[in-house]
Amino acid sequence: MIYYDNDKFNNNYIEFDTGKGSSNKKPLVSENSEEDDDENQTEEIKNIKQMGVPGMPSQPPKEIQCITIIGEIEGHFIGNPQKKATKYEHIIPMLYSVEENPEIKGILIILNTVGGDVEAGLAMAELINSVSKKVVTLVLGGSHSIGVPLATAGDYSFIAPTATMIVHPIRTNGLVIGVNETFEYFKKMQDRITQFITRTSNIGKDELVKLMHSKDELVSDVGSVLIGKEAVECGLIDEVGGLKESISKLKGLIREEENNKKNNEKKDNMD
Hints:
The protein is α/β, with parallel strands linked by helices. Helices cover 43% and strands 23% of the residues. It has helices at 6-10, 33-40, 43-51, 88-100, 118-130, 147-152, 180-200, 205-212, 229-233, 243-270, and strands at residues 2-3, 13-17, 23-27, 64-74, 85-87, 106-116, 134-143, 156-159, 164-167, 224-227, 239-240. The strands form 3 sheets. A 6-stranded parallel sheet has the order 5-4-6-7-8-11. α4 runs parallel beside α5 (118-130).
């Protein structure tokens, strides 16, 4: 017979009457049941809850660091909490850490961004372009607006066959003071972006300006939509490809860099 005694129940025990004048006490509930449940959860269950799959791939080799820039690029002001965003205060320290890590030889930048803060996007692009590691960029889905210089910032760039890039002049929202100084500031900002893109890609300035001011492709706006191969043909992107091609190219650049260093060391020793 099983019965509950208030004192025993409060102590989280059930008493089992064996019918032989003795009883066995067994714990009803663990004193730290919630903590025990969390500890006893397998890694597989955690992965299912968080990622929807029973197991995650093992960590990639530390030779290559993958950095994703997705959604809206958030700058000095907090963006809409309902939108996916990449914060530049996260990317900049990450790039610094990669630069200081001797084990990492290359960086793969995966882009699917609608653009965003111009200053923040251009700052990230300049930092990507200035690191000593080999950098390959891959445009998936889209890399619009300030995402264009981010896509051209690496040593080599790829774009998926169905990915898009929207090239247009900079714009702003909110209160604008309609004086000549404001328009001069916009002009200087646009010149900074144009110079960076032409410096880090194969497109000419005249061709880029023409794409930016096209009136045939965007409704109530100026600019151009480039899909996959079109971005390669105009010189913005180096090659059409996906993840396989991007990683293969990055590994090739790393090996080439290592061979060049070895050859230079041999020459120095011979001298």
